[in-house]
Amino acid sequence: MSERIRLGHGGGGTLMQALIDREFRRLYADPKQLLQDAACLDLPHGRLAFTTDSYVVQPLVFEGGDIGRLAVCGTANDLAMVGARPRHLSLGLILEEGLELALLRRLVTSIAASARECGVTIVTGDTKVVERGKGDGIFVNTSGIGLLESPQPIGPAAIRSGDKLLVSGDLGRHGVAILAARHGLDLQPPLASDCAPLWPLVQRLLAAGVRLHALRDLTRGGLASALQELSTAANLELQVEESAIPVLPAVARCCDLLGFEPLHLANEGRCLLVVPAADRQAALALLEPLGGAWIGAVGGPGQRVLLRTPFGSERLLVPLSGELLPRIC
Amino acid sequence: MVKPGEAGPANSVAELAAELARLTTRPWTLMEVCGGQTHAIVRWGLDQLLPPGMRLLHGPGCPVCVTPAATIDGALELARRPEVILCSYGDMLRVPGSDPAGGDNLLEVRAAGGDIRLLTSPLQALELARSEPRRQVVFLAVGFETTAPATALLARQALELGIGNLSLLVAHVRVVPAMAALLAGDDKQVQGFLAAGHVAAVMGTEELEHLVAQRRVPVVVSGFEPLDLMRGLLACVHQLEAGEARLQNAYGAVVRPQGNPAARRLLMEVFEPCDQHWRGLGLLAGGGLALRGRYHDLDARRRFVMPASSPPPAPTGSWSSATAADGSSDRSDPVFVAAREAASGQAPEVACIAGAVLRGAARPSDCAAFGSACTPEHPLGAPMVSSEGACAAYYRYRR
């Protein structure tokens, strides 16, 4: 029988120590940090960004990623969205009794690789074990600290009428990968999640002198929710050209089949960018090789998102309400 | 890399819109029958491209929307039983029961501990029943003739394999009797139909031929993409302008006159037409499907002691009963009652006009509750719930 997590692994005794030594030590650049109650960090002077996020995705492993990679990239991306270089992460794990050690090991390996890719170090952590049936295999919480590198604050307050709206790549792939796994759809070829770090892109944009007025990673709720949130926060109407929004044909077909809109699906490595019109070309020069595109512009006062269809008609683009449910015919 | 809008070439839609404008001399009123068509029209803003005066009414072709409240009540009642696993399609979960303001739906029952599972294919219910031999698996089967053959397959396999803990709460409906009822009412406005391409792909065009012959109204079998819909509208207006009433198949790539013979055979082997209540339209003769005698053991209404409001349906026998519908209004439908009371001035606190919307007599935006008291989060009527419902389409695309 394969090795599994037992309640004793969370008991604080030798079993737990062995788990940490065997499974988690390799995550830490400085294993001495494992012996301390808190991480002591040496950061350059400057302004810091701090964020936290919890990850409960099912299935734990999906095409193109897993909960570990999601937990690292997701939190690092939240930092990148305010123009901060991700530096350090905490890692809190809630394990369900019975979780296979082989799976845990696979996730830890993925966490380590993703942290290297994001340029973050894991500096503190925690492990708990809950009784069988009280968890869903594994829940992960990560908090992250980053150093602000953007010369000016990034956020809805910086958005101006006439700014341009850009996206960093094709949309909906993570959502489709998860839905396919959850509903047992056997997509051929399989669609891989877009889960990836966003800081490298933000860094290049900043280095190119692009003034980033607002950034939003397009996670739960997808582009539709992000646009509506920005419009509401900035009190400016956003106008989007539907035919300009990049969506892979396979994603569009899968959405057709299930009755979803690609613009409602989650992404884990894509962001919306709001830049001044003068910086559009400089930004697109970096975005287009990644599959990114211009999708629209910021209009006058208002709190709505208008979408122009390829036929010249207009409609609202509104966030999805509630849970994503498959349609019936 | 393509963009979502490139599915239908924009210039062709524009060309068809221009031709429609050239051709149209009178303010025609057409109805698209299927909720999928309604969504496509509203989603792509096709109604903004029509000649002035031309009206599109949205039809009742949303099976979730027309499922009677009594059936939902029955499903809620079954789902509350500890021995039952109730499964259905996702859209059914938020449909309110007979108390539209009461917030009672399958999601609430699930939150309170009911075992409710989402399926994407009826055969998943078979697997579920086998893996949970101590439980009673009930499949709430909804949909038009498009999904009914898959339910029929489930029934046949369950019978062949002798699965004793699986039953069906059948709420399947037939689309042609509803079209006939819409033409029979006093307030009929529809001058031509876009018929649902997917239903015709299964059932063929025979039933529609009967309807056209008896009611003298143009019917054009249409698809669901912008270009399909524009072609369908153009064909329908062509007929109206020429004073013709024919059945035309504008979805020939998918729809053959004989339909899908294997699916039809399966459907007729397992089901027979029955009189069926439709929300908004009332009791429609031949408007639903009931399990045939040898499948009665699989009928949840016979297996469980159910509320008096949901007895097993009485078969009406004939598959060609398209024109037998009486179209009488459903006075007992609470949603309909609320709408009538609102119209007569004795408005309850929140009035939902789902019945009128389902008959094409009102638009979602005509409803006082639309977007305020009634939203997808707190739907008062089924058309706000379903991804095929007209109210949901308006809420989603043009508040």
Provide a compact summary of the structure.
The complex is a heterodimer of chains A (about 325) and B (about 400). Chain A is α+β, with helices and mostly antiparallel strands.
**Roughly what fraction of the amino acids of chain A lie in strands?**
15-25%
Total discrete domains of chain A: 2
CATH superfamily of the largest domain in chain B: HypD, alpha/beta domain 2
Element-by-element helix/strand order of chain B: HEHEHHEHEHEHEHEHHEHEHEEHHHH
Largest interface: A-B, 32 and 48 residues
Counting DSSP E segments of at least 2 residues, the number of strands of chain A comes to: 13
Q: Look at the structure and name the CATH superfamily of the largest domain in chain A.
A: PurM-like C-terminal domain
Please state the average pLDDT score of chain A: 93
With helices defined by DSSP (H or I, 4 residues minimum), what is the helix count of chain B?
16
CATH topology of the largest domain in chain B: Rossmann fold
- What's the rounded overall pLDDT mean of chain B? 87
What features would you describe in this structure?
The complex is a heterodimer of chains A (about 325) and B (about 400). Chain A is an alpha+beta fold. Chain A folds into two domains: about 5-150, PurM-like, N-terminal domain (60s Ribosomal Protein L30, Chain: A); about 155-315, Phosphoribosyl-aminoimidazole Synthetase, Chain A, domain 2, CATH 3.90.650.10. In chain A, about 30% of the residues lie in helices and about 25% in strands. Chain A is built from eight helices and 13 strands. Chain A has helices spanning about 15-25, 65-80, 100-120, 175-180, 200-205, 220-235, 250-260, 280-285, and strands at about 50-55, 60, 65, 85-95, 120-130, 140-150, 165, 215, 235-240, 270-275, 295-300, 305-310, 315. Chain A has a seven-stranded mixed β-sheet. Chain B has about 400 residues and is of the alpha/beta class. Chain B folds into two domains: about 25-325, HypD, alpha/beta domain 2 (Rossmann fold); about 335-395, no CATH class. The two termini of chain B are about 30 Å apart. The interface between A and B is large, with 32 and 48 residues.
